[in-house]
UniProtKB/TrEMBL annotation, chain B:
UniProt family annotation: Belongs to the HypA/HybF family.
Functional summary from the UniProt entry: Involved in the maturation of [NiFe] hydrogenases. Required for nickel insertion into the metal center of the hydrogenase.
Binding residues annotated for Zn(2+), in chain numbering: C73, C76, C88, C91
UniProt: Ni(2+) binding residues: H2
This protein's name: Hydrogenase maturation factor HypA
Keywords, comma-separated and alphabetical: Metal-binding, Nickel, Zinc
Length: 225, 113
């Protein structure tokens, strides 16, 4: 006898994510899932956001890491609350662990929650964390073929931050090819920021974008901060 | 390798489906895995064998049905298999990703009754 099933295996994670989304809406939290390869600049991106926006918005960080606490310490030194999740080898965060982390952190209403996902371009893309926004940080140093090789990750991104643009000439990064790949993948409007967290090139427009985005989100949900 | 997590989910779904049924042995579970689902077949099988030890699913064959990623060319109104830079093999315009290739679900469970 054959029993027809057709059931999504990621359903449990989806339920947990939906639950987080509902909680976030009630509490006016804004959750950003920051994904990308190891060393692409995820932590630099979050540090940059903290540096430029922490006087305006309340920020907490959930730091996913396979084992170490290096990134968490770096972020804590910026004076924001950070909670470390060690996945003990797993390659991505799941909604259940985010729910637990939020429960521990107990963010006040109108908080921006940055989630730094585990560094890799495949696994995290399959797991909804209940976030408001998916940010993919991809560095020029990794080459211009990343959208072609990892389309699922880039397709899900709301914002792509192309970091380390200061090495573009040195490594012969083909911006045309990179952008063509992104355009092929994405139906929604492409939000691409080209930055170097080292030279600070492009950082201003990146910061302005997130300032406006968050300001509008919080204003649309009650009186200003 | 998130296959550990997803294999747990897979087993749970299968056990739920089988809960109220009368049968002798579970013989096969068919799982559809798309090329872009991020699931590695070998890891799935590896964890399945480990995690089903001592359960009603022990010894069950995990049959994986792979699905290729298909892109869609708006110009030709046709689907095509993933090419290196996503260009349509016919007209060379850039295709769009589709849902084909992202599948990850249990299609069926076979039991001996
Ligand atoms: Zn065509």
């Amino acid at each position: 006898m054959e029993i027809k099933v057709i059931k999504n295996i990621l359903e449990r994670n989806q339920n947990a994510a939906d639950n987080i989304r509902r909680l976030a809406d009630e509490n006016k939290w804004y959750i950003m899932n920051v994904m990308g390869s190891p060393g692409a600049g995820k932590t630099s991106f979050i540090k940059c956001m903290i540096e430029n926006l922490k006087d305006i918005f309340n920020i907490v960080v959930i730091e996913g890491d396979v084992a170490s606490t290096i990134d968490a310490q770096a972020i804590a030194s910026y004076g924001v609350e950070v909670l470390q999740i060690n996945t003990g080898g797993a390659c991505h965060l799941v909604a259940d662990s985010i729910a637990e982390a939020i429960d521990t952190l107990k963010p006040v209403p109108k908080t921006v929650i940055f989630v730094e996902n585990i560094g890799n371009l495949i696994c995290p893309s399959s797991f909804d964390l209940g976030e408001n926004l998916k940010v993919v940080v991809s560095s020029a140093a990794e080459g211009d073929d990343k959208p072609y090789k990892y389309p699922a990750m880039f397709e899900k991104a709301d914002v792509v931050v192309l970091s380390k643009i200061d090495v573009i000439d040195a490594i012969g990064f083909d911006m045309q090819r990179y952008k063509k790949g992104l355009e092929a993948i994405k139906d929604k409007d492409l939000k691409l920021f080209e930055v170097s967290f080292r030279t600070k090139e492009g950082v201003k427009s990146l910061t302005n974008y997130f300032y406006t985005l968050l300001d509008q989100y919080f204003k649309s949900r009650g009186k200003c901060l | 390798m998130h296959e550990y997590f997803v294999t747990q989910q897979l087993i749970k779904i299968a056990e739920d489906e089988l809960k109220n049924l009368d049968f002798k042995k579970v013989t096969r579970i068919k799982v559809v895995v798309g090329e872009l689902s991020g699931i590695i077949d070998e890891s799935l099988k590896f964890y399945f064998d480990i995690l089903t030890k001592g359960t009603i699913l022990e010894g069950t064959q995990l049959k994986i049905i792979p699905k290729k990623a298909l892109l869609y060319c708006q110009k030709c109104s046709e689907y095509f298999e993933r090419t290196k830079d996503f260009t349509c093999p016919k007209c060379l315009s850039v295709g769009k990703l589709t849902e084909h290739g992202k599948e990850f679900y249990i299609e069926s469970i076979e039991v001996d009754d």
